[in-house]
User: What shape does this take?
Amino acid sequence: MAKPKRRYVCTECGSVTSRWQGQCPDCQEWNTLVEDVPETAFAAKHHLSAGGREIVFEPLDKPSEPLRRRSSGLAEFDRALGGGIVPGSAILMGGEPGIGKSTLLLQAAAAIARANKGGAGGEAVYISGEEAPQQVRLRATRLGLADAPIRLAAATSVRDILTTLARSAPPALLIIDSIQTMHSDMIEGAPGTVSQVRASAFELIRYAKENGVALVLVGHVTKDGTIAGPRVMEHMVDVVMSFEGERSHQYRILRALKNRFGAVDEIGVFAMEGHGLAEVENPSLLFLSGRDEPLAGSAVFPALEGTRPVLVEIQALIVRLQSGATPRRAVVGWDSGRLAMLLAVLESRCGLNFSSAEVYLNVAGGYRLSDPAADLAVAAALVSALADKPLPLKCIWFGEVSLSGEIRPVAHSSLRLREAAKLGFDRAVGPTEGAGDKPPLAYAGLKGLAGLVDRVVGSA
Assistant: This one.
């Protein structure tokens, strides 16, 4: 028997090469090529234009059943999914180790299993490839879920799992924790390799689609924060979710990165407590300090996550250097490249000097911002810290800053203003065209950063 040839597969783009290289020749990513054992291929003596099963085409306007969703029992989980779990969908959930993925899924499985007693839910199956059943039961006891009728097992063989599930009615929810521990005997290689993860995920997803089972695959993440394994796995599933948060902070954010059945970038907010993950209906209270006096270098920004506005506090600190040392730029919760651009615009367009000072920027509560509308709030915090003059206490700031120093309008300004008014804020500063017809609070529009500097330090 001929020895199988070695091949190397890129975990980012899926390209195949015959030898290992430091950089993928297709996507140009570094250190993404891993060895993969090729599947056995049988040479075909004829072309593929005959001998297959004829497929049936359907028109786009064919009547179909409306999309049905099942509640997970956790309103924040349902919100991130776009309204609930869709039967037959495949969900991939990633997150840092110890962030609470297993806890969240165990709570959702318990809620579905308990609802099944009243005829409103369905069976929930939890299969762990990392923990023994005793360990899962200890966690369930600590969370007060020991009485939930969950079908629990510890297994890593995909063949054993599918054979067992085929002997009974399909469950409503199937949780695999985690996909990197699963093994298919049809593919050579250890669990966790590219070929094993791809083959195991394909078999489980096919079972879920054929039987209308909601499948949740827990995925490990790399040191860069991306889900380990082949990137094609994210294309195979219907929903990709990321469970984020800092271990030193109480809050956790469940974010939808891909959703074929709902909006993308929807979030669910949870707080880690002694009895598990508790839902947070008003997440803005988590990221705002409860002080009564204004402080220099602090600005409140109404961020938007999907359709949910969240008010967060942006803190800035400016430290003047006496020597000729290189000033430091430290950022937590925001893009460091965006900060460098904003500092350059403030120096070039407004005449402010940050080149001889260290700049520290922090988003309170460990929150991570990606909304470009945060530019104006960051600029306000920086100018306030530089002038050592506090900003108004009950005021929010939002707007995108261009390289010319212009304040550009942002999306969904009305949602941001309504959320701020609901939490007791009475003033807002943003783009000139961002107030709408009847703003719920006093609104001041700015055309450029020069107006921001005049507003903050003009009367100092």
Summary: Residues 4 and 42 are 13 Å apart (CA to CA).
